[in-house]
Amino acid sequence: MTIAAKATTAGVLAAFVLAGLITPQAASAADSPSVTGGGTLSAQEVGAAKAANDDRNDKSKDGWGGRNATAAELKAKDAYMAAHKPKSLTSATSNMLPYVHEGQWYNNYCGPATLVMALGMRGIWGNDQGTFASWIGISPNNGGTGVDAMGKQLNDEAGGFPYVRINLPYTPTSADVAAFKNRLIGDTDVRASLVGNAMEVYNGPHLVGHPNNGSTIYHWFPFQGYDGDWAAYMDSATTVWSGVPPRSGMPNSTLVTIMGGRGYNW
């Protein structure tokens, strides 16, 4: 990275910090691995580690199973987005949904907590984590929220907003990053939270405050909005690890790498 590129990134980070949108990270991906996130693996090495350790059929892990959106579903979603995007936001470079945060009740309740936050950012309330957990079919510290279960709950409760699943390869490409950026902008601009599905491997990039201790972490989290090539997200793991802030921000490229091998609900 050139000095100019570093200055640009630093300027965006400073804007997020001054706006109160993120908690700054102490280390970059180029630094030594931290116990609270970040690592030294390249994107290709991260992808290889994910491929070697993943088991999509393990129902104890968040983000298990699930199918990618069909061509027809993607076409219908594109049509919905084109019809509903506010004209006032056509050229917007930054937009944030309302601040809604809730810590997860149990170690395996990031899925239910993500549903509460994502729907809350859309102004939809009425169901708590316990209700969503019962609908998903998990109980305290037993079971993970699968891809299809997350998609069903989002589509059942989002007031007519159509969510579709986007699976990502273990090593996402620049095209995957560009598509994520456009989809995040689209969802945010129609007052919907795009929902991320993380798979964090040892010495790969982590969400802020997540431990880099040798374990693979699977985690659901909702996005609050965008600012250029950065995204802001909420994290329910504040009740799991003390170093996790409720709201953070990262470059889109880092977040897509973190979601590689899983994906997101758009």
Question: What does it look like?
Answer:
By secondary structure, this protein is an alpha+beta fold. The chain has eight helices and seven strands, in the order αααβαααβαββββαβ. The protein has helices at residues 3-18, 43-53, 71-84, 110-121, 129-136, 147-157, 174-189, 252-259, and strands at 94-96, 165-167, 195-200, 217-227, 230-234, 247-251, 263-265. The longest helix has 16 residues, at 3-18. It is globular.
Low-confidence stretches: 1-36
H/E element string? HHHEHHHEHEEEEHE
The largest sheet is:
7 strands, antiparallel
Question: Nearest-angstrom radius of gyration?
Answer: 17 Å
Q: β content, as a range?
A: 5-15%
Mean pLDDT: 87
User: What is the count of DSSP helices, taking H or I runs of 4+ residues?
Assistant: 8
Q: What coarse outline follows from CA principal-axis ratios?
A: globular
The assigned structural class equals alpha+beta
